[in-house]
Amino acid sequence: MAGVSADPNKLGSIIFTNMIENRKKGILKAPVYALNPARNRIGEHPCYPSIDALPEVPELLIIAVPEAQTLSLIKAAAKAGVEAAVMITGGYAEIGKGDVEREIGKVAAKHGMRILGPNTIGLVDMWSGVDSLFLRPTKILPDGSQVVSMRKPLKGEVAVITQSGHLGEVVAEELAANGVGVRAIVGTGNQLDVSVEDVIEHFAGDRHTRVISVYLEGLRDGRRFMEAVARAVRRKPLVVFKVGKTGVGARAALTHTASLVGNYEVYQAALRQAGAIEARGFQELVDLSVSLLMLPLTKGRRLAIVTNAGGVGAIAADEAANTGLKVEPLQDGARRKILAMFAGEAFVSNASLGNPVDLTASVTSDQLVKTVEVVAARPEYDLLLVLPTHHAPGMEYDVAEKLSGVIKRSGKAIACCVIGNSELANRIHMEFMSKGIPGFPTPERAVRALAVAPEYAAAKKASWDSSVLHGPSRRFDGKTGPLRQKEVSRLLRSYGIAEPRSVIVEHAKDLRKLESIGFPVACKLLSPGVPHKTELGGVVLDVGNPAEAERAFVRFQRIAAREHARFDGMLAQEMVERSVELLLGGMRDPTFGPIVLLGLGGVYTELLREYLLAVSPITAKEARRMLIGETLAKALGGYRGGPRVSVGRLCEVASAFSRIMVDNPSIEQMELNPLVVTRNRILAVDTRVMLRRG
Amino acid sequence: MAGVSADPNKLGSIIFTNMIENRKKGILKAPVYALNPARNRIGEHPCYPSIDALPEVPELLIIAVPEAQTLSLIKAAAKAGVEAAVMITGGYAEIGKGDVEREIGKVAAKHGMRILGPNTIGLVDMWSGVDSLFLRPTKILPDGSQVVSMRKPLKGEVAVITQSGHLGEVVAEELAANGVGVRAIVGTGNQLDVSVEDVIEHFAGDRHTRVISVYLEGLRDGRRFMEAVARAVRRKPLVVFKVGKTGVGARAALTHTASLVGNYEVYQAALRQAGAIEARGFQELVDLSVSLLMLPLTKGRRLAIVTNAGGVGAIAADEAANTGLKVEPLQDGARRKILAMFAGEAFVSNASLGNPVDLTASVTSDQLVKTVEVVAARPEYDLLLVLPTHHAPGMEYDVAEKLSGVIKRSGKAIACCVIGNSELANRIHMEFMSKGIPGFPTPERAVRALAVAPEYAAAKKASWDSSVLHGPSRRFDGKTGPLRQKEVSRLLRSYGIAEPRSVIVEHAKDLRKLESIGFPVACKLLSPGVPHKTELGGVVLDVGNPAEAERAFVRFQRIAAREHARFDGMLAQEMVERSVELLLGGMRDPTFGPIVLLGLGGVYTELLREYLLAVSPITAKEARRMLIGETLAKALGGYRGGPRVSVGRLCEVASAFSRIMVDNPSIEQMELNPLVVTRNRILAVDTRVMLRRG
Fold this sequence. Notes:
The structure is a homodimer. Chain A is an alpha/beta fold. In chain A, about 35% of the residues lie in helices and about 20% in strands. In chain A, strands 21, 26, 27, 28, 29, 30 and 31 form a seven-stranded antiparallel β-sheet that branches. Chain A has a six-stranded mixed β-sheet with strand order 7-11-10-12-13-14, sandwiched between helices. In chain A, strands 16-17-15-18-19-20 form a six-stranded mixed β-sheet, sandwiched between helices. At the A-B interface, helix 4, helix 10, helix 15, helix 19 and helix 21 of A face helix 4, helix 10, helix 15, helix 20 and helix 22 of B.
């Protein structure tokens, strides 16, 4: 431990004291040494001038000294064979001093020493007792009294990984306030060496970890992150709260695709593909971690709601519809069973045995528990939300214990909601939590947390693997800028993507070539320098005879001249029946590399923003899974007289397309718009491929 | 008080005891009498056998006796001149016994007695001391100890109106837990007489009420509700949480309009038009009530964020973007001022003086307060969120008191967020609340609550008034079903809505009439029994000559015959340049009456669901206000080469259209689809008007 001083409020001293205490309590097995060349002792503990002066080579070095002293310390430690260091202090890359950080990184890498940080809270490991957290657990009020300012984390099975140390601790605090413990908290700080991906990989294989909870601000290598997440998710659930949603990556919008997609949307797509559960807010990160820890795995989305208060039941039913859960009425069998069970009881005549099952305020704890037992046993429900409002006269504290027993025995995914802000509400809530039943203070939060059970079941099946598909890479002879139509056609053909029958007319004298297609044809200006052909009059449809074709040719020559663009001739295509017009686009995201977008094509593309996004490559199966339930999928399903599109074939085209940019690193952006889907063909009617500059 | 018995756990006894206590404390000025023909005394209090036996005629009668005894009690009270009654007991319309309820209503109405309930918690009035709440404030744990199960409401200025008594009390409890009081809680129960609208009207004019907070399940008369809300909102903010979002009113979908619109969407439109603030959840109802109570009125949406922790600042910035607030960078002037103020201080060199202004964990309370003072004074911000994370070493308890002073003096709309779940976090939060600064435990909730200040400023301008526009009503000669094309044209013309030039051809021999329009024309089958003409081939566009027109005519005759529908002939219209295709629809909602919908037309109408909804009538100005920022408005703004539509003219057409169904009660549904907007005309190309059945 470097940076221990006489001032007990200094970071180094706080950390040293914590570690010594853990050692005394027997939580920490390893000895703790203080390093400080200026002192012989810190309190009762000896102080060593350097790494070399220590009685043994430590496994871990925790550094809380100013930036200027760190490099020499790291050098000495790396040489001495220290395996790992935690650099708490800031003042590096985050304020522009990246060079010092890189130098430290080089030294450590040379000797195989791993570094966590700098600029981090470091970590607390509830199993080994290593604890570099330095936020004060108590503070003094003006009247001199001492109050808790930061709850100590409890020992448990949620691994909290955070790019903001402070928020990681607050997640653990909120869990602790609900009686839930953490496996560890790890703040990755500037990620000089150890990254979020590394830590995810570690906890994926850790037997004390059951849920991984991640607070994410940004990534350097998005694809490695996806691989780490996908591997972890096969073994345990992982929930991510991504912050920094509004920043749009700087990127030249050469295609509609590029102007459509924001950086956060790519993150969302990547998280979904890798099988992470996305939390939409700070509180939800905590809620979903609790829920994933406590609920059994469940595939179905059919929810039953049992309550003794109509209002909270109605709120829950609304939220269930929002969250995509099914709230189907109680079946006659269950209804009859409940009626028989309580024949003659007054509450039953006023109860509403639908879904929600509202037993009214007159029900007793025992009657509610018995009803839950009946409903939980029904095979037509996968999820159950119980809202035992304690305000009702018949509802007592013991309802939590009795319900917990029934819930545990049922084996179903069941959550409870105790609404209200009183001591009794909190006691009942904590009783549920202590029995391993996830409890939430509002119906909305409870429903969202329940929905995560089938979400994780589906996420486990996500099969992100960037390594599966690789074709030969083309060089395009070192060209840059827009790729010529001929080469685009060759490229698409090699991936099995069809275009309409067409000819290219470079000179007016070649116009007779059009006979090979047959009139009418669609004529398009070929000029890589003219991006939006339609707006400039560079597209003429339904050209019925050679004279009209010639007029179009002459007009195109004039447009290219006016725009000071190269004239590559005229593309004449067979007229394609326009039924469903889609857009298939590809671009490179700075974090995740090649991505693919499948959306509605035509003039409303950017306006309506109906599209699916994925990190490339995707398999046809994955594309199909993503399409389910989307508005886009409805457009493909023979909507209002249009043809029913072969979704399977379309997903194959999207999959092939997604491989192009993975295979060909020199392509910067590409777009098929419109991709026209007819009764029996899928045709790239207009295409655009941009090569990388430089 | 009727229903007081020897059992202290009976509703009547609980209420009686509460009232007696309020009387003893001096909160309640009026005397309290117990009614019970079976007893002479209840404890120390005399018990009267009937209303007539009381020493004086009471102003208010609270009834907690079973349903069977209520009618005679109401009769006696009404005759004796009692002005109002609260019927606590349930067992009426909510379980199908509507007839008893109606009978009671008749008796009361005859004598001018008002009734609250039945099936309600009744009310607590924190000013007069009338209190019929009966939920137990404490319960007994198994170990015999007594804990608070329902916090008593505090006295304050939020009027809570609720259709679920339980949730009304929980709102008040949550407010009390945050140190915020209520003016009253009123549960309207079955609304035999006094409705939510009545109670809103009451608190609108009440000088002790500053915010009206409504939990709403359903309404009988939507238009009266809107009028009550609109009148209230001019004087004070009103926030509504609407539950029962998923129920779709039973309604025949004769038009796209009817199949598009759900009941909850009409509620949303009505709330917006009337100027209510909509809370999206239970917690938000509480948060927005607090925020509307404490924040000054602010028109602008420009938010500054000041924090000492990067993570919470980033979360707040994300949420601000979601909520439609502007987060623009700190201007140079402010930045220079802060730098000068803290010249030489270590924290400044690491601070990020953008927006969020992140002063880092090294900042002290005083430095943070001074920075907030500078930022709050900047005219370029309307709203300010301060996140003074108390976990940082320099942040002490007194930050709340110091910040509160600066915030109050600034006069700006400023909220605070203290994240964390510890005693200190709660103390700081409560210190803010006690000083009248709205505080929230997560950045997301704080941002949403701040956004409500400009939302209310805009809502105050909402001008719902159903009485302004009324034209002459048409009888349509008592017809039902689809209205004939000729009559539709006459109707639209009288409201100034244009159609393309057209002729109706009833017999093949009249086909020469088409010359008056000039070829090409669009030909449409006229057959009221064929709803989706396009799908069945009943529309032929671009008919270029008389021969083609004749072919279309013959084809239409065949389609009508095949569908067994009446053949009214063929409509031939001038071909209209199709630029922007809209849909303008009208229907009757069971709760709110005539509504109007303006959306994207064409085949994707139902798929994309891009539309605006309003309760009819709307003024052109209101239509324009609603369009701002909507996707639909972008489509009108000359999107990608299409014509720039005259939005002003379109809003006039929508306003005129909205009047048609208000003026003509015999129209059930109507639709202009497409309503084609060209460079200089707005034309109803296809129209459909359905008259009411029976």
